[in-house]
Amino acid sequence: MYSRVRKYIAAVITLTILFSLGVPVKAEEDFEIEDNVLIAYHGTEQNVVVPDGVEKIGKAAFQKKAIISVQIPASVKEIGESAFEKCTSLDRITFTGSGLQQIGKNAFNGCKQLKYMDLPVGLEAIGDKAFYSSGIVFAEMPSSLRQIGSGAYYNSKIKAVHLNQGLENIGNSAFETCYSLQGLRVPASVTEVGSSLAGDNGSPFK
After folding, report:
1. 127 and 104 Cβ atoms separated by less than 8 Å
2. Which of 26, 86, 101, 146 could form a disulfide with 49 if both were Cys (CB 3.0 to 4.6 A apart)?
3. pLDDT, average across residues 33-46
């Protein structure tokens, strides 16, 4: 009995230390998962580790949650529509591998504290308004990226963008009203560019 009590106390102390240090902690019961799709997050921990084996973060799974950081495993292939929309405290997304292929529509719309995301090689598409009105200040597109959706970075805080050779399609207004953006060089591989790509920015563009 005393051994169990000691183990319980040790576990509580360990978790308390981890929480205080801001280390992501995973509790399986906090996640609603069906057929490898994370449907909803019911936890209160602000530093989240998505369970390994999840292949898709579903529509609005974390929408408006008061989370600060999220660690995403290599098993995740898709971040769904509005998955992290309006998570206004979210400032860090990390990937433990390069399994991600698609970021859905409005996925990080309104994430104003999110300054940077290291987009993994393997990512092929960024959806419409994925980073709309976000705090992103720099974006380096991986060599695998083929499509950037309409309004993807519209009204974001972005200052610099590196568009990869191999990119094929950039949607309408992808970088419009990004007033801090200093320039944009479109690679020769791009075959389709939407209207008002970087309109109303007040900066010189190439």
Report:
1. yes
2. 26
3. 96
